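Dear U.,

For the methods section draft, I wanted the exact inputs and outputs in one place so we can describe them consistently. I've listed the two proteins in the order they'll appear in the manuscript figures. Please don't edit the token lines directly; just add comments below if something needs changing.

First protein:
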Amino acid sequence: MRFTATDIDGVVIVDLDVISDTRGSFSRLHCPEDFAAAGHPFVPAQTSLSRNAKARTLRGMHYEAAPHAEAKLVRATRGAIFDVAVDLRADSPTYLRWTGTELSAESGRALLIGQGMAHGFITLEDDTDVLYQIDRMFEPGHGRGVRWNDPRFGIDWPATPLVISERDAAYPNHED
């Protein structure tokens, strides 16, 4: 695996080392020792799958309130997404900045998103599946969200959403 820092401390692009032969290919998706050696200790406690039927489906921007904040490793296992993290850590030098990257089943690329970030994505293809590995068990009642198009973030989404849940559409803009 290859780890590439983004402009936000705690958000890292993870690319696969692919071994190919006549049978196809093989890639390691996660190894706690490799992550720790690269300075990004991450051990999943839960794995979840998001299935999305239509292109331009937007999910986000979600986060878990402290002290239940989650780190997650996100990748598309079918189709493609534009994946976004927004730094909501008030003491961070990159507070309210965002970073985004395309994740696709073809590339195998993942995004490691540290605690204290809001996360969301928009699907770029029909029938897109997104796999989440999360560092703690889900605890109901701590989920929060901020508006996907909050002007304070200025996220440059590659498309306008066609499908968005009522909950996600109703999230407020971020307040300090």
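Second protein (the one for the lower panel):
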Amino acid sequence: MTEHLPSPQAGGLPDKHQVAASFSRAAASYDGVAELQRLIGSQLLARVSADLQPSRWLDLGCGTGHFSRLLAKRFPPAEGIALDIAEGMLQHALPLGGATRFIAGDAERLPLRATSCGLIFSSLAVQWCADFAAVLSEARRVLQPGGMFAFASLCVGTLQELRDSWQAVDGMVHVNRFRHFEDYQALCDASGLQLVSLERHAEVLHFPDVRSLTHELKALGAHNLNPGRPGGLTGRARILALIEAYERFRQPQGLPATYQVVYGVLRREE
């Protein structure tokens, strides 16, 4: 079943309601362009300890439920909870199964009991949370002793080519901001959880042209959500200037789009 919960007051950046609305709109198109997201989530799943046998797991920021279904296969007969702030994603995931419960909720204020989960798995969701310290605090509260929090996120340097190209055009905010890797290090160190591993890896996609990249970002729901972004339609002259600026980065494989991926694994001590 789907449980609907009131959204807590948003704090900081980005705006939670805009994030939820953007990803809800992208629910139908997401899976068709999510090759990198599948790769990152699979690499995160491989980092979960082989000896972990949770009786209940949480897919935090479950999206269309792809990894909820993989978690269900890996950890039978554990109860599975799929949680996302975007109700459109949950409605897409629900008929596909995998989880036992589907919940609309906020990673910074989880609607779950203390010590109720043996595993929290979160792939490419927490970069949208303004208060990652609160996410870690909630993970520590909800995890059972010996339980694990495994997350994949994005840090500064992601889509740097697009950011630099727009900077050359008009200097305005056109690309989502992300935390520094060092901020993830400091927050994990201060979380009260045991840090098992924290790594950063660059993944580079290539596109034939700028339009293909921006189309994919929109289909993923991951286009620019930051305050300060220009309003209204982007004029033809600025688009042509963007294309010209981005062409400086062209490689034999195409136009590169770099993602700086953070993989973190933390454990609540026994």
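Candidate sentences for the figure legend, describing the second protein: The mean pLDDT is 89. The longest strand covers residues 194-207.

Thanks,
Y.
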